[in-house]
Design a protein that fits this description.
Layout (H helix, E strand, L loop, with lengths): L3 H14 L1 H9 L2 E2 L8 H21 L9 H10 L4 H29 L7 H23 L4 H14 L6 H9 L6 H33 L9 H6 L2 E2 H26 L24 H7 L7 H17 L1 H4 L11 H45 L22 H6 L1 H4 L19 H9 L17 H13 L2
Antiparallel strand pairs: 1-2
Helix pairs in contact: 3-5, 3-11, 4-5, 5-6, 5-11, 6-9, 12-15, 18-19
Length: about 475
Amino acid sequence: MNHPLLTFALDWIDERTGFRHLMSEALDEPIPGGSSYAYTFGSALVFVFLLQLLTGMFLTMYYVPSAEDAHRTVEYISKEVTGGAFLRGIHHYSASAMVILVVCHILQIIIWGAYKKKRELVWLVGAGLLQFILAFSLTGYLLPWDMKAYFGTQVTVNIASEVPLLGDFIKRVIQGGPTLGTLTLSRFFMVHAFLLPALAIGGIGLHLFLFRKARPAGPFHLSEDQANARTETFFPGQLFKDAFVALVIFGVIAWLAWTAPAPLEPKANPGNTAYIARPEWYFLSLFQLLKYFQGGLAIVGSLVIPGALISVLTFLPFIDRSPERNPLKRPVLMSCTAAVLATIGILTLMAKSEDRATYAEEFAKQARDGQEFLKQPFRPKEIGGAPVAPAAKKPIPESFKAKCAMCHGDTGRGGPVGPNLAGISRTKEDIIGLIENPAAHAAPKMPAVTGLSLEDRTALAEWIKELQ
């Protein structure tokens, strides 16, 4: 296309942005040894990450991160919003796709020996991005606030609490209080929707910059001179292969989202202690491993073994310093990699097998409950018929938001574990004492609220007494 007007417009833009040089840098990148489908995992990961960002922004438009409304907003997206169930399904399945692709990407680099000299920083930043992907999965798991999300996250928090000395502190920081509640949801939502995407975008940019600086390693079976002799530019060969693989991945994810909508179980009920909780499939091996380290040895399964594995993976370029890249001439590393993969696979299968043998009926019932819930019509929140805001004349005290809302709800009208406080029959003095020492005021199941002065407790009691 050489239309004079188009050429003039492009020249005008190029003079001010230099986009032709940037396009040349991106598309004319030399690939030693030529293009290959083995190199498509990295670009596929970026594509799926963009899918997560786009669908996540859509979900954020409707989502409310509170114990009272989170589940209802996810239900609204799934049942009422046009295309909502499909886009939520894309978000759900692309999360699993990221885990699969990052494992494939890491394996390709290990087998090709592409982490060796000059590419250590590329590997280190990639290892950091792996942590971000796992953090995305952990923080996003709770957000639907259904039975599976609540009890699955409870298992994860309990694992974190096994850390010696700091376990209880870590648990309270994650939860934002003594139990999972609104503060937990708001923290997970902030990390999942804002902090992690910002860190991941920066990490991906740095990863690509370092990769371009170090240049691709090329096939392991060719010497550097042989690979350079067969150099091919990124466009068109590698770009076509990347686009084709991305299209196939999107087709599979879209098909899954259309034929099997993302699951959503009934709203979390912390009082249902009969619920059988399990983490996502990619954490089942860790869940199974924890069964063999009970009591004082729990830290071995929850921290020591996973931490050692992550540390070896992160610092692999500094452990394997041999210039040899041919996998057949690196039998120790290849054998260890195969053993780790086999162990993860066996532990996952064992977890599945034991669950089928022990809790088959319970899991079948939970699955049926989830399917039936998705078939039920959406019931909007009652605003006119039932009060949704406190009738108190005073504003909600900050101490209530920080210390009480996670149990009694944002407005004091009942939450995941705490009762409705409106119309409570206790005297103001009784409430002041109960907040500090529940057991002494006939409320043995309520945890003591610490860190509040007498003035804070008095203000809380006066506000609660005004609730109608």
